[in-house]
Design brief:
65% of the residues lie in helices and 3% in strands. The protein is built from 15 helices and 4 strands. The protein has helices at residues 5-19, 35-60, 68-95, 131-149, 159-182, 187-191, 199-217, 230-249, 257-283, 290-304, 313-335, 345-363, 384-414, 421-426, 428-433, and strands spanning 25-26, 118-119, 122-123, 126-130. Helix 3 packs across helix 4 (131-149) and helix 11 (313-335) runs antiparallel to helix 12 (345-363).
Amino acid sequence: MKKLLPFLLLIVAIVLGLVFPSVDVVEVADSKIDTGDTAWLLVSTALVLLMTPGLAFFYGGMVRKKNVISTMLQSFICMGLITVLWIVFGFSLAFGEDVNGWGIVGNPSTFFMMKGMVGNATWSLMPTVPLVLFAMFQLKFAVITPALITGAFAERIRFNSYLIFLTLFMIFIYVPLAHATWHPNGLLFGKGVLDFAGGTVVHMSAGWAALASAIFLKGRNTPEHTPARISYVILGTGLLWFGWFGFNAGSAGGAGPLAATALATTTTASAAAAMAWVFFDMFNGKKPSAVGACIGAVVGLVAITPAAGFVSVPHSLVIGTVAAIVSNLVVIWRSRTSLDDTLDVFPCHGVGGMVGMLLTGVFASQNVNAGNTTGNGLYFGDTKLFTIHLFTLIGVSIFAFVGSYILLLVTNAISPLRVTAEEEALGLDATQHDEEL
């Protein structure tokens, strides 16, 4: 029965697709769809999708040769499984009509099977692009978030069990955070939390889930290893950086000044973080490395994500630099413990996301984004936004870590998460997929 679980979703999806075809045309008289904004979001959606293959190369190049295919597939499979879940009910749970005023989940029937997507309907916070495009744009965020977690348990997780955890994480961790943060009736949205493109929803949730996974699965039997393909890491970084422009600048919702600002801050923060990581390594007596520069660039991208459309370009320099140094210090600390976060997902994505969230509360300016109704950041003498972000950081951290740990327990009860010692020694490419590099 356990082996059949991964196939049940596809069977159900096929049945639902035949029984509930969404062909009703929705025509809104005062629709304001703009072709330029639509074109930009179409491009942005494609760019964000490219980030998941980029992540696959980024992670795949860092593991041992016998685990490259398995590690890369753990990212690629998200493009399949999460898409099916999103189409059936995921988008409704995240962006459907708020349930009972709780601000944490949407009604699964609102957009069930993409109901109401044919025609000129739009999303209230992105009123110039078609609703179906907004749904597809948000899908790409839902795809990459669980893929980020995989670096923490690389080289020791059973693939079938991973699919179960993937499903549970999307439903019980990602969806509530997306609804609470980005829905106009969301709990955190109502409190004034600013998360331009996913520092809280994407990176903090993935980072804390990664930490929970590393603790739950415990360390590998032989944790020390040499990366299989550093060239893959460089390629993955390039794809991530390129795709991140869609991630951040696309979150502006249109082709305008705010998108241009987000693109500029994204470029600057990543560049600053890459250099800060390299220089910090050199300061500590290490040789400048390609892997270090790549990790630094990604940390900068992570940190600027929540702030991209709320801060100025000079302040993005500060955000990238601070995030790189803090994350580097946490990597050093982690390496001195028994915690086996294989590819340092928590120090880079989790900590990077938290630094970015806090610094959004420091440097956010209403002059940059008039849509910021919460107020200016701490740097400008206003304490409200920073305080909100500080308490939100604590709450989201507890929710994501504890919730993920519980889901790991549930998954393990259904199907063991950890491969056997023999399977780990042989490598996951051969034992989980009967393939080799």
